[in-house]
Each structure stands twice: as C-alpha cells, then as structure tokens.
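Give me the fold.
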Amino acid sequence: MSGIGLSIPSAALLRVPRRRIPEEASALIRRMSVEPSPAQIGLIANLVRSLVAGGIWGQLDALHVLAAHDAQAARLNWVADEYNLTAVNSPDFTAFRGYAGNGSSACLMSTANPFTLHSSSAAKLKQNAAHMALWRLTSGFTATKGLMGCREAATRFFDMVQFGATSITARPNGGPAHGALTVPAAPGFLAMSREAASSAAYYWNGTPLATLAEASVLPPNAAIAVLAQNVTGEGPSAFANDQIAVVSFGGALTPPQAAAFYAAVRTYLLAVGAVT
C-alpha cells in the first residue's frame, strides 16, 4: 500500500518559521521531491535539533527516517546527499510508517560500504568505533532474516539478523562466533555500538541491554542492505518481511547518546502516529 492518504495527527501540527529551521534540516528538505507539509517540516526540524543537541548528529554517516511522508523522502540520507537508499524489487512503503519487505526478494540498498567508510578520513564508522541502529515496527521474529547490514564470506560481519523466536544476532565489525541477543519481540529501537576493539554494547529503547566481549574484525567489504543481509560477491539474501521506520549507522554511541537517540526518534514517531 502507498499510504498517501495518511496525515500527521492534529496534535503534531507544529508551525516552525523557515528562518528558524536548522540548515541541516533545510538542506534535507530541498532534496525531497515532494515538499513536506508545514507540520512535517516542524517535526523534521525538531528531530534534527535534538540529534545535534544530544551529540548524535556528529556520529552519523547515515540516518534514514523511513517513516516519512513520501517514498523518495524516506530513502534519503538525512546527513548528506550520499548513501541514499535504492528500492530493490518493490518493498512496500507506507507513509509515516516506513518500508516493509516481502520476505523473499524486496529490500533497500545503500551505496555505503563499512570497509570503505573505515578507510575514509571523513567517515565516522571505524573498525573499533561503529554503530548501527533501527526502529522496527513489526512484532515477533522469524529465524534467519536480515534486518540490515552485510557480511564478507563467513568471517566479517556488520549486520543485524533475526535468529530464532526472540533473538537477534548483531555484529558490529564482528566475527562469526558472536552469540544471539535476547530481544523483546515487540516493536522498538535496537542500537549496537562498538566502542572498543574487544567489546560491543547493545541498547533496547535507549536502555543498556548487554555488553558482549567480542574482538573486532576489519569491516566487511560489501554495501549495506536494509530488510536483508548483503553478501560480498553474492548480493542481498535472508530477506525480511518486517516494517522498519528508522535506520542509522556511523561512529560509536555512548550510553547517554543511545538514550538521547531513542528519545528523539520516539518523539518524532509518536508525532506522526507510527508508535503509541
């Protein structure tokens, strides 16, 4: 479904004068084929302000707010005009909710490659300092379905993969031995952050979930997929049928930043009616 008939709830009808909109938000809006409503512009501006104030914006290589008013806008990288997403085999877009896969062939592809980002002086994502995060609107899990990320062979991973009825395997520049995390099957925001060569921290709805001792590996040389796992030399596979509202990746997040990230995104999703 296209969802073009949906509108932002009246409680979110914010009016923000254009002169007060952060330049980061103005630059994003100029790249949108369909201009958002005044209410949506206000929400975009407020989310950008919150991310800047929380120290999160400077850690992002990419932020995709899939729960947007328009499909093209949903695929944009909020941070810069690079690493925008491309729809593969028509994943389903619903306005103010996000993109959903079909479990067999549909996904979103970024041109961002963790190995290339690690090697770039301008990028935030590094082997021992990296994060990836997503807000999932779907309940329940299906075994061996990729929510986002990529891998190179079976040795280098930067991904989140559903694994069993209540767990996700999340590997920020990790190897194959990483264990599965028990995660609530309810919709929510899962973030993982590698802040050191020997461990990675995981957060559920902004609250620490676990810290796992796991040595880092060189990031995989493959583009990042959403709603699938992309494999070097093979392409995307393990397609998910989940609906995802927000996706990000970049440098490491501290515990306060993870909490602030969740709060800022939740405020936006509440306003557009994606969560309650």
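Helices lie at 23-30, 38-53, 71-74, 114-119, 255-272.
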